[in-house]
Amino acid sequence: MKVNMAADPEHVRKQNRSLILEQLNCDIPLSRVEISKKLALSKMTVSVIVADLIREGLVDEVGEGEAARSGGRKPILLTLGSSKFVLGIDIGQTNTVIAMANLKGEKQYERKVPTSRNKEVGQIVRQIAELVRESLAKSGVKSENLFCVGISTAGLVESDRGYIHFSPDFNWKDVPLKSLMEEAIGFPVVVDNCTRALALGEIRYGGAKDAENLFFVNVGHGIGSALMINGTIYGKNSEFGHIRATSKAIVCDCGKEGCLEAVSSGHAIERRAAELYPEESGWMTAEEVAALARKGDDRALELFGDAGRYLGRAIAIAVNLFNPDKVIIGGGVSMAGCLILDPLMEAFQQDAMEVIKDSTTVELTRLGTESGVRGAIALALNSLLFSHSTG
Ligand SMILES: [Zn+2]
Hints:
Strand order of the largest sheet: 6-5-4-7-11
Number of strands: 16
Oligomer: single chain
Bound molecules: zinc ion
C-alpha cells in the first residue's frame, strides 16, 4: 500500500530540513527570513527547524546581516556548521583514498594508501578501521564531531542496507559491509556503488551542479553508469557497459559478447593494445597507450578512436532514450582527454537526434583524480544533510 507522503508531517519536516540545509550549502550566509522567503516556508517553521539544526551542530550562527530598510533588528546570519565533519573513503582495487571534510565538503585531511593485497573482507574492514582512527588522530577532529562515513566501492551494492551482493574486484559475495564497518569503527556508515558515488560527486562539486537529469558514465577498468532523474539519483543498477555495441564476437567479463565494456573500457584498450603491439613484451596500460597516441602513434590513435566511437554511438542511444541535460564521462579513461572525447563526440553528433542532442551537453569530468574521494564525501554528506534528494 502506498502512503500519501505529502500528508505525513514527519516526512514534510525532514524534507523542509533538507531544503534549509541545501539553501545553506553555498558561500553566502543567510538569515532565517531570507530562507523562509526563498523556500516559501513560514518564519516559524524555519525557526523551529533551525533551532534543531543549531543544537545538532549542523548549522552555525555567524554574525549579523543588514537591517531591513524599514529599520528593526539586524538579522542573525546562518551557515553550515564548521565544527562537524564527515569521512569519505573510496576503496579501489589498487588504492584506497580517505578524506576528512567539513559539511561544505572542504577537505581537511586526505591520505592515499595501497588497498590491502589480501582482499578478504575482514582484512579490508581492519584496514579501513585503522585508516579511520589515523584520520581522526592526524586531523585533530574529535570523534564526537565526526558524523558519518561514506564508503564507495565497485560492485553490485544495495545502498539502503549497505549490502554488497557481488563485487568482482574483490571477489566478494553477500557482504553486509555497512554493518561490518559500523561494528568496527562505531560511526554511522553509508555504502554505495562507486559509479553512483562518482555521479553524486559531479552533482555536488563537478559539472552536474545545475543539472536536473544526468547520465553519468564511468569508463575505468570496466564501464559503469548512473542516472539522476529530476534531481534524484536513480537507486537501481544501470549497466550501460553491457549493452551490445558490436556484432563482433568479443567476449566480455560478464560472459556475453560484443558489450560496450568489451570494446571501450580501459581493460578493452589494454587487451587490444596487446594484439596491436605484438613486439611489446609486457602488458601496456591504457595510460601508456594514451602517451603513445599523444606522440602521434597511428595504432594508438586508432585504438582510442575506435573506443571513443563505440562510446559515442552508445551514448547517442542513451540520450535519445532519456534526454538528459548532461552526460558526464568519468573514470580513468576520461583522463585521455580529447583522445577519447573527439571520436566520441563525432559519433554522438552523427547518431543522436537533432532536437535532443541540442539540449544535451556531453563532457568529461572536471574533477580528475579527485573524483573518487569527492564522490565518497558527497555520499556521506548526502545521507546526512540532503537525504530527500538521494531518493
Ligand atoms: Zn558485458
